[in-house]
Amino acid sequence: MAKTPDTDVQTGLPDETGNGAETPAAAADGAATGAPAERRPPREVPRPKGLGPVGWARWGWRQLTTMRTALILLFLVALGAVPGSILPQRGQAPEKVAEYFEKHATLAPWLDRLSMFDVFAAPWFAAIYILLFVSLAGCVIPRALQHYRGMRARPPAAPRNLLRLPQSASYETGAAPDEVLAEARKVLRKRRFRVDAGEASIASEKGYLGETGNLVFHLALLGLLLALGVGNVFGYRGNVVLTEGKPFANSLSYYDQFMPGREFDSDRLPPFSMTLDDFNATYETQGERRGQATDFQAKLRYRDTPTSQEKPYNLRVNHPLDVGGAKVYLLGHGYAPVFTVRDAKGNVAFRDSVPFLPMEQRNYTSEGVIKAPDAEPEQLAFYGILWPTAMASEDQKQIVSAFPAPIRPVVTISSFKGDIGLDSGTPQSVYKLDGIGKTLQPVKGGQKLLEPGETLSLPEGAGSITFDGLREWTSLSVNHDPGRMPALIAAVLAIAGIVASFMVRRRRVWVRARAGEGGRTVVEVGGLTLGHPTQEFEEIVAALRGPEERGTGERPARQSEADPDPASATDTKE
């Protein structure tokens, strides 16, 4: 009887030696354990090694450069921009940020820690922005190279069975096959198809403009992000409050807030200047919209250089002034009462207009402070509330403003004397009094309601303050952005690209001609369109057949909407 080969007790398979002999590894294992073969433990399989740093880096790069990640980051950019639209920003309206801090003393510091008042310069927003840029670049650039190679490649060869395509037609003609194919090449090239001749067939393709438009859209989006980054790095932004009759020079000392880009040299500011001659605001006077502003106009005079001719300009909303490579925008406005302060010796300690900040936007009730550090023997300070159109409230107990225009301006003054604190060198806000009740004491009897031309004389000859009149101020934003024009070009290309991607579809047409019965030629035409079939296929078939062949033995053009898998009829991948 033939002896069967020994089998492995663990797997039940014949021993590799085929003769029941132990393998060297098994012998070594048995020698090490001293146990019979049936009691030996299974051989340990080595565990697979981890990805390692390089593997994890490749995995992270693949995840970052997917379109899904790009869409998520784009959503996060849009979500991060929401606080910048809801909350006041230091770059546009620092006075409104200060007002928000006063009204929300507990919440505002926490929001400030999260950079909610300077969203677009926040580190977390910059991180999302950079990740989005890298994700788009890693996703779009390889696609663009692949698309370029596809555009230069030959059209795919004709499938075996053209009549199974979503659009197909078949007819007979008396022309020779070579003549049919030559005519097909001519017709298709006339319609701007890329044509390639095969064995007894013609392959053609066009419609790459749709995919090109899609790539142009994404590349333009990438360029738009780059242009915005260039503007933030090499540009600058500044805010200034300019009162009627006051000049402004493009110098750091004139700015209330200046934010240069990381690579911008502040010493290279262009030397333009301007003066605000007059500011006019127009309001609705009747109806439910009474008091609502309808128009703002700031009449300026400006110079491009100190030696250039002065030019007038009417600055309005959405009509910025272009000067010195920067654009000057109109942001907001308010009132600046003019005061004259005399000290105890009768000397003029202060005479100027003082910008007041609006306490409410409906009727522009405003507040401000007047500081006279040169008054002797004690420094003087005043807190004022301005009502542009003063009238008594309904209960006749307080004063309110009935209209935002300065119809009847009235100022309530509260007086203080002592040490203002300017001599200590500690920075102070021009809109706030520090040290009240400590170094700065209220003056008893130093309160009064003033109309233009009236004076408040302080008790014991401590001094006086006169309300001389009312001017208006406007807040201007000076913005130099070298990425503005590239961003505009990128935006236009993005719109053109997205339109092309929706309007143009990929189309392929194949023509095959073979000899039939009776000396005639059988012509088969097949079409494949990315998306719904088009009328163009029928036009191509009609042009190929010619007028003399129409109405003769033809298999009519077919459009199969229910074809389960049109691509299965082709030999090439779509």
TrEMBL record:
Q: Name one GO biological process term.
A: cytochrome complex assembly
**Superkingdom assignment:** Bacteria
Major localisation: membrane
**Which residue intervals make up region (Disordered)?**
1-49, 544-574
Query: Where in this chain does the record put each ResB-like domain?
Result: 67-531
Ranges in coiled-coil conformation: none
Which ranges are annotated Basic and acidic residues under compositional bias?
37-47, 546-561
Give the GO cellular component terms, alphabetically. Answer: membrane
Q: Answer yes or no on keyword Oxidoreductase.
A: no
Give UniProt keywords alphabetically: Cytochrome c-type biogenesis, Membrane, Transmembrane, Transmembrane helix
**What Pfam families does the database record attribute to this sequence?**
ResB
Q: For bias kind Low complexity, which ranges apply?
A: 16-36
Localization terms from the record: Membrane
Topology class, membrane:
Multi-pass membrane protein
Residues crossing the lipid bilayer are: 70-87, 121-145, 215-236, 485-504
Recorded protein name is Cytochrome c biogenesis protein
Give the organism's phylogenetic lineage. Bacteria, Bacillati, Actinomycetota, Actinomycetes, Streptosporangiales
